[in-house]
Amino acid sequence: MPTLAHSMAATTRAARTVPVPLGGRSYDVLIGPDLLTEAGRLVAGRLGKARCGIVTDENVARHHLAALEASLRAEGRHKGSIVLPAGEPTKSFAALGPLCERLLEMGLERGDLVVAFGGGVIGDLAGFAAGILRRGIRFVQIPTSLLAQVDSSVGGKTGINTPQGKNLIGVFHQPSLVIADTDVLKTLPQREMRAGYAEVVKYGLLGDAGFFTWLEQAYEGIFAFDQETLVTAIETSVKAKAAIVARDEHETGDRALLNLGHTFGHALEAWTGYSDRLLHGEGVAIGTCLAFRFSESLGLCPAGTAERVARHIEAVGLPTRIAGIPGGKADADELVRLMGQDKKVRDGRLTFILTRDIGEAFISRDIEEAQVRAFLADEIAAA
Ligand code: GLY
After folding, report:
1. Active site annotation includes 259
2. Residue 345: alpha-carbon gap to chain centroid
């Protein structure tokens, strides 16, 4: 177990703080190595006398729960821990009810904290539970996947899935603090790490061409856990997200830019039954390549841009084409139908995030269904 002095040294060396400015709901995202062992001190220092009810999953618990509990106990802040099955089915009404009841039985009061300690599933579920428990109590996100550290833990989207679709039930409920410990990522399966990277690259592609160019050079350092590179990549991503969330917390406008690659990606995820065939980030990787190829086919973005994007995504080991999904051939009509179920549908029209170039994404509501169908049919035929 590292000593506090060791932790402090590591923290001052590489930890960064990104503020999310939302008036009375503002909070910080702390990013760096070895933060888990400091979590108790960080929570106590920033959030007062609150006691913490940890919500986590079996995989995270096996590797990291003891360290987080010890850190909270050292500050007298640990109230209890709830360990749930890992995986998407946990983000459901079936899991939410018992979770809320267990948090109440734990004795969490209005001033206390739920600690969402896991990836996107746990963050969304535990955040939603916090949002409705006693009509809303505070919560802390301690994201343990790259995807959660750069995206889902920041911005206050919480919720569950239903048979009608993903994330259709939920609330905006901002965390009071986000602690992203980059060391925790070392126990993440490589496939999950790559899938999370799709969301990192998204920030370059949607609004920061310089960041994308940097990633083209630096990405190997991220996967080698070079702390400076990894922390910089997460910090840059979180800064981009914080800026967008600050100007459009409830997604009435610009926040939709964060869905670059997601309209196609969500349809592919639904088509593969949210199974192991395609992780969310892998769907986003293919969806991002599709968004660039679609933009190029519409004459919106310079020729060769989509190829450059796909080259980088492929170099990382992510899929770039629908044909890269194992286990069956897709159908354009079916994918268009699944896109219609996406919650970003407004007045029956799909919202697409298209691009004028790398770093120049924009929101489009002018796309005809027939154009998308024809594009997807070509993509599927090109396999
Ligand atoms: N993950 C997209 C958003 O937070 O808006």
Report:
1. yes
2. 21
